[in-house]
Amino acid sequence: MSEGRVKKSVFLFLRTAFIVVGVTLGIYWASNNWAELKETFLQMNLWLFAVALGIFGLGQIIVGLRWWLLLRAQSIFISFWSAVRLHFLGLFYNNVMPSSVGGDLIRAWYVTKHTHKRFEAVLSVFVDRAIGLFSTILIAGFFYFLFLRGRGAVVNSSMGDGLLEFIIKYKWFFLFILFGAAAIFPLLLLFRNSRLILIKAWLYICTLSVKAIGKFKDALIIYCRSPLTILAVFGLTIFLQIMTITGFWFLGVDLGVDVSINYYYVFFTLKWILGAIPVSIGGAVVVEVSLASMFIKFAGISEVSAAALVICQRLIWMLVSLPGAVIHLSGAHLPKDFFIDYNKPIN
């Protein structure tokens, strides 16, 4: 097994272990609060759950539309439903499959089967993600500063001081690592084999970077020439996020998380950002713990109500992701001529 595969396997193991520990602790907590949790779910309005499920599903189709517009700006003319199917495939890998391969990488890989503009197609996936992340931060900031600022919510000022104290306390340890890393490089230059490897690696990186920068520049120029497309994509992103969070607000009020919708707009967007940190798979445990903690600590919600909301949210995510499994098994994520011409080079 190559070194790269070993690293991926170790990383996947650690992320999986993180989820296992988190789920185990969650089950232990639920067993101690099962009576209240059961009562909350029994009183839940299933129609509101269905509404939240439908809104989230519709939101994912809008995400597919957003990505489709970005592809067209690069003159990549795949069908709208092909873009939607690829998005649902990525969603399935993100939320259901215990894999080190994220949904964005799955989309990026399979969209190249639909076009010869491979770099541009892959770039569109990450531009789509960047726009989504930017709009998420914008929504969180807007609703916090406009409606929640001054209420002691969201921001814990001691976190920054604590981090600074931690760095100062262990400064010699960090300096040791820094100087150690700096000392290794000159040692590698002393040996001929390692020196040749470094030179080859540097030349390869330079060549690849020049090509990538050129294509990246061309792609960005195209996007800059399509300001209406970028505005449309940004507007769709704001709309679908507000629509999705509003759906969860209806469900949350029914579950006992009966606070101002402004809290939802801030907390849900913040937990999406935290969920993107690759310490688990699909943001599992990170999303649930962060969202429940914010509602409990800053909105005064009971632990049982907050837990019921995050469980329902995860269930909705997984249910909406299931069409991705059907798409994968049926081969609907591939172009129609793939199985005929898959061994022929793309001109």
The computed structural class is mainly alpha
State the helix count.
15
Tally of DSSP β-strands: 0
Low-pLDDT stretches: 153-164, 338-347
The rounded Rg comes to: 23 Å
How widely separated are the two ends?
A: 34 Å
Overall pLDDT: 78
Question: Helix proportion of residues, in percent?
Answer: over 70%
Q: DSSP strand (E) fraction?
A: under 5%
How is this structure best described in words?
The protein is built from 15 helices and no strands. The protein has 347 residues and is mainly alpha-helical. It has one domain (3-158, 221-335). Helix 3 packs across helix 4 and helix 4 (80-95) packs antiparallel against helix 5 (103-111). The radius of gyration is 23 Å and the shape is globular. The model is unreliable at 153-164 and 338-347 (pLDDT under 50).
Which helices and strands appear, and what pairs or packs with what?
Blueprint: H1 3-32, H2 34-42, H3 46-73, H4 80-95, H5 103-111, H6 118-148, H7 158-169, H8 171-189, H9 192-224, H10 227-255, H11 261-275, H12 286-299, H13 303-321, H14 323-330, H15 338-341
Helix pairs in contact: 2-13, 3-4, 3-6, 3-10, 3-13, 4-5, 4-13, 4-14, 5-6, 6-10, 6-11, 10-11, 10-13, 11-12, 12-13
Brief synopsis:
This protein is mainly alpha-helical.
Which labels suit this protein?
15 helices; disordered C terminus; 347 residues; mainly alpha; single chain
